[in-house]
Amino acid sequence: MDILIIGFALFAMFFGAGNLIFPATLGRLYASSWQIAGLGFSITGVGLTLLAVLSMAKKRGDIFTFTKISGEKFSKVITFLIILCIGPAFALPRTAATSMEIFDAVGFSINHLLFALVFFGLTLFLAIRPNNVIDAIGKYLTPLLLITLLILIIRGIASPIGDIKVVKEANVFSNSLLEGYNTMDAIAAIVFTPIIVKAVMDKGYEHKYMKMMSFAGIIAIVGLGFVYISLTYLGASTSSVLEGEKSRVDLLIYIATELLHGLGKYVLSIAMVLACLTTSVGLTSSLSEIFNRFFGNKLGYDKFVIILVLVSAIISVGGVGTIVELAVPILSFIYPIAVLLIGFNFIDEKIKHKKIMTNTFFVVGVISFIQASRDMINTIERLFGLSNSLTNAIASVFDKIIKALPLNDLGFPWIVPFLIVLIASIIFYNIIAREKDVTVQTEIN
What we know:
By secondary structure, the protein is mainly α. It contains 17 helices and no strands.
């Protein structure tokens, strides 16, 4: 029973309304290739998240220990970027921005700035003064949202909205893998896992908590995978009947309206907004503690709560589309490093020469930085029309560097350099180790 409770708790933690807006759009885009798109999205959106949870659990949920293997100085940079992305820069503002667009999509007209202030005002109140209200909402909210989605999925399968259009798109799988980055769940796991680890420990599983975390994780990813792949299918079912541009939120509300009619879309909308609020409170609370610790407990938890909600409120007014587009370049820098952190934390005690790890972090960090900088310059120019000769020249040079690397066309230019540096470092440090052993043995003789 404890496994089920913890598994559903983990599922609920990642079952945020913000993530529901991505798979349907992916399905509509790739239509007849929706199965491949759903699988690719689930690998990074769900599978990588499970690995992140288990890797963090191995370090007992300590983010500072988790990032330390990347190197003393670099670990501070990546820790800060992780909590910044999952906090006030992108994930937190997205909760309010998604809620705003949900209200707009169902016909409620409200000033976005006013909405952001009310939304984050509630977040502030509930995060600073722990209240049973948020627990009660969370307790009933996840089942409500899940039941609504299940009805949506069943109706969508039994009576599809329309025929699935046959499309021929290149790189469906790799593009869907990259789209899975947008859930931010793999890096959110770094923030949320300490809560789950503590819950497991409190239930008396001190000596077998990894086993409990593994079983609970499987329960969570099966649920998430089912929801994501089903929503990808529902999105694909609109491909032949829905013309023109649709935002991610508009598409999901359109699907709900077609399948559940008037009342259904309102139930889904309310549940999604409340899910965004509970996610906002959970993130604000967890991140305020981490930020406070990161800055040496100088400001205090309450002040960081206030800072987070103020910054998030301002950024949220930009809208979901802008937030997602600005997040993509930053995530293209963070996710490759997160993959290394997740992988190496499973085996770090078996690696005698720590330089093997820090060398790979360095080369992946440099390549990801170049890629992210190029993409950010282009994104800022596209969104805001801001450009000059210097930034254009930098973007051009960075573009040539990235395009010269293998697998760039698939969106993974860091993989081959990572493998080369990893293999070269293993060989190099093993040779040095053998030479030292020979020298020591000679001196003894």
